[in-house]
């Protein structure tokens, strides 16, 4: 399977958001990753539905929406109305995860489950067959530009083994510190989708950087 790339809008220049979205539309990116933070589940606030709705109207790429908030299931219907392709919720934020996944699927969206760095992959054993993607955080969620957590490589390997053993079709996505030295190792370990923020948006040539990440086929 070819490597998918989902640039993270969190690292974009918000004074020129239209220009940034236009770049994404022209790029080889597969999805656009949108990080929603509430200042409670994570120690930061990013953007909410006014920005999501504005982006959704002009972005031609599928929206990969990652909720770093408490009780994300409150916003399933609102997210579906955006036309989002994927709704990512944190395992640590959903008390009734199976129900949330079921409700996401009922809207026609794909369901992703995100794991913080301290959450082991085996905890998904009873739910892995029901989800479309697992997002492994390779930094502590809440801020962009953090240093990559090396244990993530081993964690991806463990998750790949769980997926294959259970017959799940879930994709593996990684977010945090994805750049030239970490991306090839992640793909080799079994990652399907690379989320990259600063490495893409702060590069001299974002279009070329996205092409570079996509060239990392297994």
Short characterization:
By secondary structure, the protein is of the alpha/beta class. It has helices at residues 17-26, 49-58, 76-81, 97-106, 151-166, 183-189, 198-201, 206-214, and strands at residues 4-7, 32-37, 63-68, 86-90, 110-115, 133-137, 171-175, 193-196.
Overview of the structural elements:
Strand 4 (86-90), helix 4 and strand 5 form a beta-alpha-beta unit. This protein has an 8-stranded parallel sheet. By secondary structure, it is α/β, with parallel strands linked by helices. It is globular and about 45 Å long. It is built from 8 helices and 8 strands; from the N terminus they run E-H-E-H-E-H-E-H-E-E-H-E-H-E-H-H.
List its salient traits.
single chain; 218 residues; alpha/beta; 8 helices; 33% helix; globular
Number of helices: 8
Helix content: 25-40%
Structural class: alpha/beta
> How much strand?
15-25%
Main sheet, how many strands, which sense, barrel? Answer: 8 strands, parallel
Tell the overall outline. globular
Give the H and E element order: EHEHEHEHEEHEHEHH
Q: How confident is the prediction overall: mean pLDDT?
A: 94
The count of β-strands is 8
- Alpha carbon gyration radius: 16 Å
Low-confidence stretches: none
Distance between the termini: 7 Å
């Amino acid at each position: 399977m070819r490597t998918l790339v989902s640039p993270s809008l969190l690292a974009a220049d918000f004074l020129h958001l239209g220009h940034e979205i236009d770049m994404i539309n022209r790029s080889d990116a597969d999805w656009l990753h949108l990080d929603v933070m509430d200042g409670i589940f994570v120690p930061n606030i990013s953007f909410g539905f006014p920005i999501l709705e504005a982006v959704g109207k002009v972005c031609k790429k599928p929206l990969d929406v990652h909720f770093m908030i408490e009780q994300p299931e409150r916003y399933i219907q609102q997210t579906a109305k955006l036309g989002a392709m994927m709704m990512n919720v944190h395992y640590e934020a959903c008390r009734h995860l199976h129900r949330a996944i079921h409700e996401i699927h009922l809207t026609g969206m794909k369901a992703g489950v995100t794991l913080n760095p301290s959450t082991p992959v085996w905890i998904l054993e009873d739910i892995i067959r029901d989800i479309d993607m697992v997002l492994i955080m390779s930094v502590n969620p809440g801020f962009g530009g953090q240093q990559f957590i090396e244990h993530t490589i081993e964690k991806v390997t463990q998750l790949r083994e769980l997926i294959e053993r259970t017959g799940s079709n879930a994709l593996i996505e990684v977010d945090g510190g994805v750049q030239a030295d970490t991306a090839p190792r992640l793909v080799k370990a079994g990652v399907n989708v690379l989320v990259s923020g600063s490495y893409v948006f702060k590069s001299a040539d974002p279009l070329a950087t996205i092409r570079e990440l996509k060239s990392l086929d297994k």
